[in-house]
Amino acid sequence: MHLHHDDTFPEGSPHGPGGSSPGRPGGGRRALRVGLGGPVGSGKTATVAALCRALREHLSIAVVTNDIYTREDAEFLLREAVLPAERITAVQTGACPHTAIRDDISANLEAVEDLEEHLGPLDVILIESGGDNLTATFSKGLVDAQIFVIDVAGGDDIPRKGGPGVTTSDLLVINKTDLAPHVGADLTAMARDAEAQRGGLPTVLTAVKSAGGVTPVAEWVRARLAAWTAGPA
């Protein structure tokens, strides 16, 4: 049973102040939880798939997807065989996806805890939100770091317009850079605007479906995991 669903938990809470506990109930460090959000069609599921392929040989990974009424994203990952079936689970939110990653995170917390219980110790759990708008952010009680994915076809003014996903995510991925010449997107301007909006937080411009396109994102995940593992349990 999940008793604490807010972003910040009181002192003495088993989740600790400001987020969920890094420890497992039975001892040891739990998996690093990385949330992936972004607008519809930006390439979130493609990013998850590419990360699984890049990391699965060296890390123990699992995935939780969020869709409103379907299991479409989970079924895509299963068809692509990016991980064994038992490592992929789906949450049907029944409403806007942000409600299940920010407002009432209980279904996602249950899915995450079930994966760790059934699979044993994991290194990373990727939690993908269904397609949402630029205001979609994850509860700090659910994830330890957030990746926000936008794409150049959505307009090269998106970084300039900002929004919580663009300005506060731990990593901003500007995806589908290979389409820039076809949609008239100015990548230099997007990079400049992202830097101005993000106050030093990292941004990656890439095409995750291209050869090596997910490499900088995977390297960022590895670095977060190294810091997570080195921290106090």
Structure characterization notes:
With 233 residues, the chain is α/β, with parallel strands linked by helices. It has nine helices and seven strands; from the N terminus they run βαβαβααββααβααβα. The protein has helices at residues 44-55, 72-79, 98-103, 106-119, 158-161, 164-168, 180-183, 187-198, 215-230; strands at 32-37, 61-67, 88-92, 124-128, 145-151, 171-175, 203-205. It has a seven-stranded parallel β-sheet with strand order 3-2-4-1-5-6-7, with helices on both faces. The two termini are 22 Å apart.
| β-sheet strand percentage | 15-25%
Shape: globular
Order of helices and strands: EHEHEHHEEHHEHHEH
Low-confidence stretches: 1-18
**Rg:** 17 Å
Average residue-wise pLDDT: 88
Helix content: 25-40%
Strand order of the largest sheet: 3-2-4-1-5-6-7
Got a strand count? 7
> How many H/I helical runs?
9
Alpha-beta content class? alpha/beta
Rounded to the nearest angstrom, the distance between the terminal CA atoms is: 22 Å
Largest sheet: 7 strands, parallel
